[in-house]
């Protein structure tokens, strides 16, 4: 490994003992499918790459590292299999491979990024389902979806806590929803964001006590 990386000045080599309980989170984070595994991590982009070749030689590792750096090798992304009937209900059950599919039939989108262990997400899900049904009946141009972000990484979208709601005016024009998670305010947000030319008014200043109550309803990563 050291010989293979010696010509790349910015590449460092580390080894991890996967049997060490301390390293279990690292192994899980990088979705290590088998051992041993050569993994390349780009600290600047935070993308990582699994070496899938059987030939572990100086030459083959050099080609692998060069491909990671020049973009010719795709980086690894967490993804779940596409659920059956993922788009048949009011709430679209999105995964990596279907994330942008609803834009083929809808102009706008509202997506909930959640985690299965998040208590606030579980409590909010019935409201999100009711919101999706309302949007489907009143605003057919808008789709409503949800995605387990712990199992599906979407490039160019960074999530700092759960639940997080993002509005998509286009696939590239995104707005993070920062209002209260009520049906009424979500509907108002849809109208102001997608169907009026007026800018969304800034959130009025709230007391420190109110801020603390809102923060308690959001679980950081």
TrEMBL record:
Domain Thioredoxin residues, every copy: 50-195
Coiled-coil region list: none
Region (Disordered): 200-221
UniProt keyword annotation of Nucleotide-binding present: no
Domain of life: Eukaryota
Keywords for the protein's UniProt record, in alphabetical order: Isomerase
GO CC annotations on file: endoplasmic reticulum
SUPFAM superfamilies in the record: Thioredoxin-like
Gene Ontology MF annotations: protein disulfide isomerase activity
Pfam families tied to this protein: Thioredoxin
Biological process according to GO: protein folding; response to endoplasmic reticulum stress
Family, as annotated: Belongs to the protein disulfide isomerase family.
Full protein name: Protein disulfide-isomerase (Trinotate prediction)
Organism of derivation: Myxobolus squamalis (Myxosporean)
């Amino acid at each position: 490994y050291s010989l293979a990386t010696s010509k790349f000045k910015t590449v460092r080599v580390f080894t991890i003992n996967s049997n060490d309980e301390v390293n279990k989170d690292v192994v899980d984070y990088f979705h290590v499918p088998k051992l041993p595994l050569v993994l390349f991590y780009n600290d600047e982009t935070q993308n990582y790459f699994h070496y899938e070749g059987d030939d572990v030689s100086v030459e083959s590792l050099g080609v692998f590292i060069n491909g990671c750096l020049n973009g010719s090798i795709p980086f690894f992304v967490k993804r779940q299999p596409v659920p059956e009937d993922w788009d048949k209900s009011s709430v679209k059950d999105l995964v990596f491979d279907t994330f942008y599919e609803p834009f083929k039939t809808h102009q706008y989108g509202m997506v909930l990024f959640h985690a299965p262990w998040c208590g606030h997400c579980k409590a909010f899900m019935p409201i999100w389902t009711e919101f999706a049904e309302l949007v489907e009946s009143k605003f057919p141009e808008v789709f409503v979806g949800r995605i387990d972000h712990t199992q599906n990484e979407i490039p160019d979208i960074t999530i700092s806590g759960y639940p997080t709601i993002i509005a998509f005016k286009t696939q590239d024009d995104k707005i993070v929803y920062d209002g209260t998670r009520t049906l009424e305010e979500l509907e108002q947000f849809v109208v102001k964001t997608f169907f009026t030319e007026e800018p969304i008014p800034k959130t009025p200043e709230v007391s420190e006590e109110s801020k603390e109550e809102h923060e308690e309803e959001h679980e950081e990563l």
